[in-house]
Design brief:
- The structure is a single chain.
- This protein is an alpha/beta fold.
- It has a single domain, classed as Rossmann fold (3-Layer(aba) Sandwich).
- Helix content is 38%, strand content 22%.
- It has 7 helices and 7 strands.
- Strands 3-2-1-4-5-7-6 form a 7-stranded mixed beta sheet, with helices on both faces.
- The longest helix is centred in the first third of the chain and has 17 residues.
Length: 213
């Protein structure tokens, strides 16, 4: 999505500052914990596809990141992430290079999600794991972000949000088997406190799916 790349180049600093806001800190903490629940047993090196400014990568100990936004990558690199400018549909790595690949809030911004998942599967080691984290379209949070999209939000107007079942089907078509779930943001926006669950909750706002080769 050329337009989306241009937007992330333009708004990289503003996007990154959101994580330091009161709301950003709470949501980031919950989302990180949800991802961590699925990382047990996964071995480095790790790759994040759509690393953005590197907030998740740094917090989760992810070594490598790719992104098409040069400005975002510059911020990620300052956080110590080894970065390359690339798209998820064409990863610049050899087959079987990584013990885990992370797609966190990335699927909704790519041109060809099935190609991205196929590429993630290709660069995973035989016993590696893929973690996909999504804003669940079929949740109150999904409704909020769909509303932002409809209202022309500079970033989210470029997003396409998916249901959990749609992501599961795409992952399975890429040749991987679902191995676990985690869920958080189970209450409507602004109704805190939030909890993290090591299972699939169908109306959770943020859902992570672990798949294995």
């Amino acid at each position: 999505m050329k337009d989306a790349v241009e937007v992330f180049d333009l708004y990289a600093e503003e996007y990154d500052r959101w994580f330091d806001s009161a709301e950003g800190k709470v949501l980031f903490k919950m989302e990180v914990e949800a991802v961590r629940l699925l990382m047990k047993g996964l071995e480095k090196p790790f790759l994040e596809v759509g690393v953005g400014t590197g907030r998740f990568a740094k917090e989760l100990g992810i070594d490598y990141g790719i992104d098409p936004s040069q400005r975002a990558l510059e911020i990620a690199e300052r956080r110590g992430i080894k970065v390359k400018k690339a798209k998820g549909e064409s990863l610049p790595f050899k087959d079987g290079s990584f013990g885990a690949v992370f797609l966190l809030f990335t699927i909704c911004f790519v041109d060809d999600p099935e190609k991205v998942l196929s590429e993630a599967q290709r660069v995973l080691k035989k016993d590696g794991g893929l973690i996909v984290g999504i804003i669940n379209r079929e949740s109150s949070w999904g409704e909020l972000y769909m509303k932002k999209k409809a209202e022309g939000h500079p970033i989210y107007k470029h997003a396409k949000f998916y249901s959990i079942d749609e992501i599961i089907e795409m992952v399975e078509r890429a040749g991987m088997a679902i191995d676990g779930y985690s869920s958080t943001l189970c209450q409507p926006p602004l109704e805190m406190p939030y909890e993290v669950h090591s299972k699939l909750i169908k109306d959770a706002g943020f859902v992570c799916i672990l798949a294995k080769n």
